[in-house]
Amino acid sequence: MRQYVIDAFTDHVFAGNPAAVCVMEKWLPENTMMKITLENNLSETAFAVKAGEKYYLRWFTPGGEIDLCGHATLATACAIMTFVEKDRTEVTFTTLSGDLTVAKKGQLYEMNFPAYELKPVPVTEEMAAAMGGAMPEKAFMGRDLLCVFGSEEIVRKMTVDQEKVRGLEGLLLHVTAPGKDVDCVSRSFAPKCNVAEDPVCGSGHCHIVPYWAEKLGKDSLVAYQASPRGGTLYCTREGDRIRMSGKAAVYSVAGICIE
């Protein structure tokens, strides 16, 4: 079976967020997909099966299946448009989060994702302890916990306690601050998914973009994920949706042997 590893939200390899992509004729047993995911040991492995003009798409982390993943969706679209159906410039995926469409526009892959509704939650000492003593100015809950800081340096230099992050509410923890050269910077931590730090988190920006769009009074943002690998996202809020664009770099094309 063919598998592609693609670095999303970057224009060169060894940066952005790597995702493994398997485009299949039919579904494998779920335990087999989970074994492939664990063997890859990336933050996400995506599995896609064509159905008419659309593709069914599922995402697995080393901790199990997840309901929304931006970088692996971008990577899957890149794999399909680059290797599987080279004439396509748009593909729609049927997922646990509904239909998601990705369109290729020049070097960018533009995704249309749902925005999470953010509810303010109290800032607690437990949050600060999980983030190396850094006390957020504000905190919000969607699917994930979003913590807002006033300084980009705090976000960039933060060292988290993985077990204490695991004890916080929300599936992932996102930390964000205003950026010096971009609209906002962020980092994403996902120990509940057995991922210490997600290098560039698309679904995280479905939390981050609504906050900064409201805060800055502008709908179009350039966001930078300040992980060690780093990645840039071009985002626009449109009501309860987020248009999120990024580049992609193909790292590997391989055959995997599972029989």
Structure in words:
- By secondary structure, the protein is α+β, with helices and mostly antiparallel strands.
- Strand 10 (138-141) and strand 11 form a beta hairpin.
- The longest helix has 15 residues, at 70-84.
- The protein has 2 domains: 2-112 and 246-255, Diaminopimelate Epimerase, Chain A, domain 1 (Roll); 119-239, Diaminopimelate Epimerase, Chain A, domain 1, CATH 3.10.310.10.
- The model has no long low-confidence stretch (mean pLDDT 96).
- It starts with a strand and ends with a strand.
- The protein is built from 6 helices and 18 strands.
- The protein is 21% helix and 42% strand.
- The protein has an 18-stranded mixed sheet that branches.
- The protein is globular, with a radius of gyration of 17 Å.
Report the top-level CATH class of the largest domain. Alpha Beta
Can you tell me the residue ranges where pLDDT is under 50 for at least 5 consecutive residues? Answer: none
Strand content: 35-45%
CATH superfamily of the largest domain: Diaminopimelate Epimerase, Chain A, domain 1
Largest sheet: 18 strands, mixed
Ends apart, CA distance between termini = 10 Å
CATH architecture of the largest domain: Roll
Count of DSSP strands: 18
Q: The CATH topology of the largest domain is what?
A: Diaminopimelate Epimerase, Chain A, domain 1
Structural descriptors:
2 domains, alpha+beta, 6 helices, Diaminopimelate Epimerase, Chain A, domain 1, about 260 residues
